[in-house]
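SEVERITY: medium
COMPONENT: batch folding queue
REPORTER: lab tech (J.R.)

DESCRIPTION
The queue accepted two submissions in a row. Attaching both inputs and their returned structure tokens so the on-call engineer can compare them side by side.

ATTACHMENT 1
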Amino acid sequence: MKFSTKDRDNDLSSSINCASYYGEPWWNNDCSRMMFTRNNFNDLGWYNWYTGSYKQLSKIRMMIRKPLIVETSGCSDCDCVGSLTTESGIYEITADGNPLQVYCEMNDGYNWMVIFRRIKGDVLFNNVWTSYENGFGNLDGDFWQGLKHINKFSAAGWSVMRVEMEDIVGYYGYAQYSTFHVGDASSGYRLTVSGYSGTAGYDALSIHNGRKFSTKDVDNDLSAINCALKYGSPWWNNDCGLVKFTLNDFNGLGWYNWHTGSYRPLVRVKMAIRK
């Protein structure tokens, strides 16, 4: 909600200006359930207070802070981070002597490092080679970790990879691979992937095994065309691809022969690796 005052009505009430009528400037919806800004100090309140009924408040305080930071600069991966905290989130580790922010996810008894995610649709993914090499996006939302970083971690034994997907009607499916590796720059960041299990239906990723990465400005696929350029989908493209995760159009994300046996748009996609 937008903020409203007696002289600026931004609330959703169709009949009154809540801030003016009740004397309570706030981020009002259809008026408010938080009475913190009234001039009458004896009329402050919080809707359905813990007693289940109205009680006058005598003290109120609102505070902000940065997210809880765990000192992880001495860590080189999410396993180390997981030994210090059970909270999933963004952490700064040291990789090749340099600071690197990563998203560590602690669940199922494992410490995963998320290498790719799309959940908001606010980041464009049809990017050039250097962007995919170095990484881009926002770790708290949509991002690509960077091929050079994925190479380092997969070479260090982070070789189990899991793809998690949710479609437009809320079905969740996953594809897990027991072998996952991304080569170095000289190999074109060649993909090695095998050992599928999961609920995603068709194994749409293994057909990309052995392929170099391609972008609109670097064509490494086997097609007569540059698939990344023509379809706007940078990937380890073979003769174009069966995985549509990197289109700019967030409504066009897809996994070939999804569990339904037909195409259904995906609204959430995540790739994560672990040892």
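ATTACHMENT 2
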Amino acid sequence: MTEWYNGYYLEGVGNIYNPKSVVEALSEGSCKDYWSKTGGFTELEEYITMDFKGLKDTITNLLTGEQVPLNVLGFSNDLESFQDKDEVLTALIHLGYLTYKEGNVKISNRELREEFSSTIKRLNWGTVSRHYHRVEI
């Protein structure tokens, strides 16, 4: 359960689990991707296809398990107007797709890595998808 649903981080609290997915896993008796039942993947697709320099490379790095430095200070709490990739990634933190800790961003857990993976397959990001699937999730 830790691999699948842990990984969100709140300052002063520490790591927390995705409560909806934990309840689903306990009810169903298995760990798997319950996030997609929320329909949220269309939101993810919209954000990661924005045309900002370095965004696709950053998503690729995140998919391989890397933590990526991120400046969250420019974010204006507007989920529709973005100036750069850092603002897009900060929005993904607010939407629950990424977690932020000590100046770095990462994909929170296996459930969300699978969401990102499914999304890039749908988008046909060929080289990204091939590179990612050589890496253990």
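NOTES FROM REPORTER
The radius of gyration is 15 Å.
No errors were logged for either attachment.
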